[in-house]
Design brief:
The chain is of the alpha/beta class. It has helices at 2-27, 59-64, 69-72, 90-104, 121-131, 154-165, 256-262, 280-293, 316-319, 329-339, 346-355, and strands at 30-37, 74-83, 111-115, 138-141, 175-179, 182-185, 190-191, 200-201, 209-212, 215-218, 243-247, 267-272, 296-301, 321-323. It binds glutamic acid (GLU). Residues 30-221 form the L-asparaginase N-terminal domain.
Length: 356
């Protein structure tokens, strides 16, 4: 009996030590990884082939491939979708944003990482930055090389993303995009190269910060509205108004605007030439689309960097057009879709484009 008691005591001591051990674990920040697919979850039949299928590998396999991740944070994963990001949808955006809002409202979650294909990562990140209502860090990441590729960079990108999401310094910076040791603001970043690991850049404002094997620093804070300062909310929203993008070029056909209006677009973004320009015929069609159908036309640019300025070569008021400021066409579409969730004047929409 005495012997049994000693054994029992030893057992109890062991349980206590384990409990202390797990109490230390719970002192680590809690980071949730929400997986959506992409090349980071892609696999190929050959390690030296650039062709592969995106969105093949599940979240737990991805986490297991990152040595040391368990020392950064208590990490757990959830599969929200598993698609190549060319197949990202507004429905997935809404599901993802609602889930992030729900998770971040809990004291048990300190930060979020979203794994995502690189093709539309900047769009998802920008959308999230406008509708996630929290100061806690949200970091999107991905990779240019598939998980089975030689020198796959996905595991290090994921390691760094978890390090950022766990770091109190990353609070209040909005949604961030991190690949290749860099931290970018969702609003400012673009995919600039189709294949290179250094594809993500913020051509106008530059990086937000840097990260090196989990050690990180910030150089600036985004100066537009996002998160808690954003007036946009997706509470109760099940769909967004249709906004299309038209790419401008020399001698483009003037019937393009009508085609989009007939298809049901409530807004149109022109990826204009130069400083948001388009042919005279398109400009007049844009004016008519607003006057006859209330369709809002935003002038962005097909040029990779620079502002689109109001009243530059003509008076925007004469054509009821809005300028995108320095927001690229894909992100202008997102901002316009959210702006159109409620009735807003042209003046108010222009103000949104100057401030978000
Ligand atoms: N098209 C794929 C995607 O965006 C591949 C791009 C990538 O993730 O690098 O998911």
């Amino acid at each position: 009996m005495k012997f049994l008691n000693i054994k029992m005591m030893a057992f109890l001591i062991a349980v206590t030590i384990t409990a202390i051990g797990s109490a230390q674990d719970t002192d680590l920040p809690n980071v949730k990884i929400l997986a959506t697919g992409g090349t980071i979850a892609g696999s190929a039949s050959s390690a030296t082939s650039g062709s592969y299928a995106a969105g093949q590998v599940g979240i737990q396999t991805m986490i297991n491939a990152v040595p040391g991740i368990e020392k950064l944070a208590d990490v757990s994963g959830e599969q929200v979708a598993n698609v190549g990001s060319q197949d990202m949808t507004i429905e997935i955006w809404l599901k993802l944003a609602n889930r992030i809002n729900e998770l971040l409202a809990s004291d048990d979650v300190d930060g979020i990482v979203v794994t995502h294909g690189t093709d539309t990562q900047e769009e998802t990140a920008y959308f999230l930055s406008l509708v996630v209502k929290s100061d806690k860090p949200v970091v999107t990441t991905g990779s240019m090389r598939s998980s089975t590729s030689i020198s796959a960079e996905g595991p290090l990108n994921l390691y760094n993303a978890v390090a950022i999401a766990s770091n109190p310094e990353a609070r209040g910076k909005g949604v961030m995009v991190s690949l290749n040791d860099q931290i970018h603001a969702a609003r400012d970043v673009s995919k600039m190269n189709t294949t290179n690991v250094n594809s993500f850049q913020s051509p106008i404002k530059g990086m937000l910060g840097g990260v090196f094997y989990g050690r990180l620093g910030f150089f600036r804070t985004p100066n537009t509205k996002f998160g808690n300062t954003s007036k946009f909310s997706i509470m109760g929203v099940e769909a967004l108004p249709r906004v299309d993008i038209i790419y401008a070029y020399a001698d483009m056909s003037p019937d393009l605007i009508d085609m989009h209006v007939k298809a049901g677009a409530k807004g149109i973004v022109i990826a204009g030439v130069g400083n948001g320009n388009m042919t005279d015929a398109i400009l007049n069609a844009a004016k008519k689309a607003y006057e006859d159908h209330g369709v809002i036309v935003v002038r962005s640019t097909r040029v990779a960097t620079g502002w689109v300025l109001r009243d530059n070569e003509f008076k925007d008021d004469d054509y009821h057009t809005i300028v995108s400021n320095d927001l690229n066409p894909a992100k202008s579409r997102i901002l316009l879709m959210l702006s159109l969730l409620k009735e807003r004047s042209l003046f108010e929409i222009q103000d949104v484009f100057y401030n978000y």
